[in-house]
């Protein structure tokens, strides 16, 4: 942060309608790391919710580079989803895209069933779909907004995991996306931060529940990452300075978060369960 607490302008002001389109963002988020894959997920099948753009897109492409087949569940960002599918296919891996509102339990079950119909199993489940609204006054958070936020951000994780679990073999992995806000709170994203706190407890509890089945459950808690969720939530000036208040003074790119998911998904993390990796630009989190 600059002297006097003024946030840096890192990009031009911009806004979008929710849920946001990656192809309309300026600059476009960085998806790829340059290094080639090394086969760490060879012959695995990954289902990624919210995989059309942002962190989910970067995870999908990185997993594909490492040899995984990919199923992407998303809401209605069809162009972004097709772009992501193309990126996965460019690696030589198979990919399907599944549109549906995951705040509805039936759509969560459908996403899993379509993945199983195509690939036969799910080795890696990444629960990543999310949305938020900025509300500076706590009293302005309506019951409808609260329920919608929890249904999208938390209930979908629960429902997708329940549906997927019978199809996850021994050695399988579940990775849940939380947030730095789960650990230090957010005065203007109270309902969102609450869902992310629930995801932390869900992850830790589920890891203990599934450890004897030899299924590992972990999570990633990103800080400020440049994704469509940001451009579709905050006003133009806040978007322009987004991320400037962390020690690194910038937002992270999706490509900088995806390797944390890869570590948790592959055999390198064989002795890790019930844990979170904090990719947040230097903010110290004790949790």
TrEMBL record:
InterPro entries: NAD(P)-bd_dom_sf, Sc_DH/Rdtase_CS, SDR_fam. Coiled coil: none annotated. It comes from the Bacteria. SUPFAM superfamilies: NAD(P)-binding Rossmann-fold domains (SSF51735). Residues 1-38 are annotated as: Disordered. GO terms for molecular function: oxidoreductase activity, acting on CH-OH group of donors. Residues 1-11 have a biased composition (Basic residues). Keywords: Oxidoreductase. Residues 19-33 have a biased composition (Basic and acidic residues). Pfam families: adh_short_C2 (PF13561). PROSITE patterns: ADH_SHORT. The keyword Oxidoreductase applies. Signal peptide: none annotated. Belongs to the short-chain dehydrogenases/reductases (SDR) family. PANTHER family: NADPH-DEPENDENT ALDEHYDE REDUCTASE 1, CHLOROPLASTIC, NADPH-DEPENDENT ALDEHYDE REDUCTASE-LIKE PROTEIN, CHLOROPLASTIC-RELATED. This is SDR family oxidoreductase. It comes from Chryseosolibacter histidini.
